[in-house]
Specification:
Elements: H1 9-28, E1 39-46, E2 57-60, E3 63-74, E4 77-85, E5 97-102, E6 109-114, E7 132-133, H2 138-150, H3 154-169, H4 173-191, H5 193-212, H6 214-233, H7 235-258, H8 260-279, H9 281-302, E8 320-321, E9 327-328
């Protein structure tokens, strides 16, 4: 096999670029690759979509476990396809119910699952309409509206309008001004439509931010619950510790009270000793200064082993000629070899 240096560098670079691109795409789309994710898709039939849209959350027992992939019309029903991430399929029973719930005050929805049944739900079989619920159904609303309209007596309604018109024909000026004020208020609210829209948009952003921090908030609450549970479990131990501390404090107070007469003379003598030491502080400082040279000398004499060793300056003449050609003590007593505060040699 040829080494890379001998191959076509352009081809090698192209292959490397393709491999790097594939690695990047795989890393960003890993959750969409069946072999790399633990996602299971289900479907449910609803009588109405009720505002459910693609991307809405899927919650199980109040916890987000997936999201809605698609909401389409399927015959006379609405088919909602959703995926669950990392959920044990055995938890989704064959009697599981699905419902569309309102998530925020602004009307955002989510799909809620209530697991039921002894055997697992087949992902290929949609949850039927008789096991799904919606916040409202348009058909029922239209049916109730139709019945309400049919019950209205149009002749009496027309007469009522005529009476209202005749009543307001001779309306005094204050009433007219009140109606004009209401009209002006309505126009003001209408002119502030853009500001109200911006306010609602900002509210939606706040809701989105809180939703994106859902896991962190749940974790904080969970950690707080764990702390409270641990404190509850250790309540007896903490109570015993506090009781023991209280008893020790009581015993110490009793000991002090019982020995107050014995401790008073000792404390008085200790005060006298402290006064004497304070009075002679300068003498003690001078003694410590004079002790320092002696300590250094003792360290030099005994610091080379288990014997005493020193250099005594001035005991012999500066130079001794033995007649053998060798001279002893040729250096004599050199002042640099002894410190001014050392009376013995100053080391070797």
């Amino acid at each position: 096999m040829k080494p890379l240096k001998e191959r076509n560098q352009a081809a090698v670079g192209l292959v490397a670029l393709v491999l790097v691109s594939l690695a990047i795409v795989t890393a960003y789309r890993a959750d969409e690759i069946p072999l790399l994710n633990d996602r299971t898709s289900y479907a449910a039939h609803f009588a109405e979509s009720a505002g459910l849209a693609e991307g809405n959350d899927v919650q199980l027992a109040g916890v987000k476990v997936g999201e809605v992939d698609e909401v389409v019309l399927d015959g006379t029903h609405v088919r909602a396809t959703f995926s669950l991430d990392g959920v044990d399929t055995s938890r989704i029973g064959d009697r599981t119910r699905a419902s569309i719930e309102i998530k925020t005050l602004l009307g955002e929805k989510y799909l809620a699952l209530r697991p039921e049944g002894e055997s697992a739900q087949d992902p290929a079989e949609p949850i039927p309409v008789d096991r799904t619920d919606t916040p409202f159904e348009l058909q029922d609303a239209f049916d109730r509206l139709s019945g309400t309209v049919e019950d209205i007596d149009t002749d009496r309604l027309a007469k009522s309008f005529d009476v209202v018109a005749d009543t307001f024909a001779d309306t005094p000026k204050p009433m007219t001004e009140a109606l004009q004020g209401l009209s002006a208020l309505s126009e003001t609210v209408s002119s502030r439509d853009a500001q109200l829209g911006k306010l609602l948009s900002n509210t939606n952003k706040i809701t989105g931010t809180l939703r994106s921090r859902n896991q962190q908030l749940r974790k904080v609450i969970g950690d707080g619950n764990s702390l409270l549970t641990e404190l509850q479990n250790r309540r007896q131990d903490i109570n015993q510790l506090l009781v023991g501390t209280r008893q020790v404090s009581r015993q110490l107070s009793g000991v002090v009270d019982d020995n107050r007469e014995q401790l008073r003379p000792a404390l008085q003598e200790l005060s006298k000793v402290t006064t004497v030491l304070q009075r002679n502080q300068n003498n003690l400082d001078r003694s410590l200064e004079l002790l320092a040279p002696f300590t250094r000398l003792g360290t030099n004499v005994t610091g080379n082993g288990r014997w005493f060793e020193g250099y005594i300056c001035g005991m012999l003449p500066p130079t001794i000629n033995t007649g053998t050609g060798y001279e002893y003590n040729s250096e004599g007593c050199i002042g640099d070899m002894a410190a001014p505060d050392q009376g013995v040699g100053g080391g070797r």
